[in-house]
UniProtKB/TrEMBL annotation:
It comes from the Bacteria. It comes from Flavobacterium franklandianum. This is ATP-binding protein. GO terms for molecular function: ATP binding. The keyword Chloroplast does not apply. The keyword DNA damage does not apply. Residues 6-169 form the NadR/Ttd14 AAA domain. Keywords: ATP-binding, Nucleotide-binding.
Length: 179
């Protein structure tokens, strides 16, 4: 079996981190979303919402963090590694806000290729905003569309995870991987 680097994507509040936590509980190797970490570091430096104040800097930091996650995933002894959001997410968010970005963002997407992409659809019943998730549900749906388009533009086939219980969502993902 070759290395599987699997990304779970979706707009804000779709259950990505909950699924990652559930996969960790089942013994899988998983890498968490890093945007909250970047946001918390910026807050320590007095920047309340780095993505809103300096989206390019925020995106550069995310891009580097996600490239490092990919490199670490390649080096893992585990045959399967799950990642909460991938490199193309950075571009999707830049498209969402209408900002341009340097060509090395595109290069990073072309050089660091994932095995499978699972996308979680917008789900209003579980959507909650907080201090790090400032988007409303309508914005979350737009972000979902940008994510879908961006990943598909890089040639990925998106596997939509149905709205269901946590256990059933995890079983769906594991079943798709075993095909």
């Amino acid at each position: 079996m070759s290395k599987e680097i699997i990304v779970i994507i979706g707009g804000p509040g779709t259950g990505k981190s909950t699924i990652i936590d559930g996969l960790i509980e089942k013994g899988f190797c998983c890498y968490p979303e890093i945007s909250r970490q970047v946001t918390l570091e910026a807050k320590k430096q007095g920047i309340e919402q780095l993505f809103l104040e300096n989206p390019l800097l925020f995106s550069e930091l995310l891009l580097e963090g996600r490239k490092n996650q990919f490199k670490s995933a390649i080096e893992e002894t585990h045959k399967i590694v799950f990642i909460d959001r991938g490199i193309p997410d950075v571009l999707a968010y830049m498209h969402y806000i209408g900002d341009s970005y340097p060509t090395h963002f595109d290069l990073a997407c072309r050089e660091n290729l994932y095995t499978k992409i699972f996308i979680l659809p917008p789900w209003e019943e579980i959507y909650v905003s907080d201090e790090a998730r400032y988007e409303n549900f309508e914005q979350a749906k737009l972000i979902h569309n940008h994510l879908s388009e961006t990943y598909q533009n890089y040639g990925y086939e998106l596997i939509e995870v149905p709205k269901d219980s946590l256990n059933n969502r995890i079983l769906f993902i594991l079943d798709e991987i075993s095909k």
